[in-house]
């Protein structure tokens, strides 16, 4: 969801009930860890956007659609975004864009505009 030189960080959650993959965008892995240690931190300081996306069983890298209320109800038992996001933050996996490529750098080993992704386990 972010553009420019900022790093894209998202949380991936594989739903055990439906098998769908849910994704939320967060400001940083550090903000998520701080929230886990101090629940008084507002979610607005952790989330990049108050949206929950679903990739229809294609992992965190699949085509992302907005999750419908019915999909959220089926997997999480609620469609209240705050409750769903908290569950994803608690049980999801952080995925960070690890690109060090500069704007316009064509000598990258991944090719122009391609960035490598790295999953980071931050469960405590």
Please characterize this protein's 3D structure:
With 124 residues, the chain is an alpha+beta fold. The chain is 23% helix and 20% strand. It has three helices and six strands, in the order E-E-H-E-E-H-H-E-E. It has helices spanning 29-37, 69-76, 81-91, and strands at 9-14, 21-26, 53-54, 65-66, 93-97, 117-120. A six-stranded antiparallel beta sheet has the order 4-3-2-1-5-6. A hairpin with a 6-residue loop joins strand 1 and strand 2. The longest helix has 11 residues, at 81-91. The protein is globular, with a radius of gyration of 15 Å. 24% of the residues are buried. Mean pLDDT is 80; it is low at 100-118. InterPro entries: Ribosome_mat_SBDS_N_sf, SDO1/SBDS_N. This is Ribosome maturation protein SDO1/SBDS N-terminal domain-containing protein. Residues 106-124 have a biased composition (Polar residues).
- Rg on CA atoms, Å: 15 Å
Helix coverage percent: 10-25%
Largest sheet: 6 strands, antiparallel
Note the total helix count.
3
Give the averaged pLDDT, no decimals. Answer: 80
Number of strands: 6
One letter per element, helices H and strands E, the order comes to: EEHEEHHEE
Strand-residue fraction? 15-25%
- Major beta sheet, strand line-up: 4-3-2-1-5-6
Structural class: alpha+beta
Low-confidence stretches: 100-118
Shape: globular
The CA-CA distance between the termini, in Å, is 26 Å
């Amino acid at each position: 969801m972010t553009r420019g030189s900022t790093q894209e960080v998202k949380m991936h959650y594989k739903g055990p009930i439906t098998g769908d993959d849910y994704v939320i965008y967060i400001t940083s892995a550090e903000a998520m860890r701080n929230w886990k240690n101090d629940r008084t931190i507002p979610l607005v300081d952790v989330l990049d956007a108050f949206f929950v996306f679903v990739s229809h069983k294609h992992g965190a890298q699949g085509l992302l659609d907005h999750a419908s209320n019915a999909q959220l109800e089926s997997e999480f038992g609620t469609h209240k975004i705050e409750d769903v996001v908290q569950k994803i933050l608690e049980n999801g996996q952080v995925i960070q864009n690890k690109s060090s490529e500069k704007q316009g750098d064509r000598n990258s080993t991944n090719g122009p505009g391609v960035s490598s992704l790295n999953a980071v386990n931050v469960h405590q």
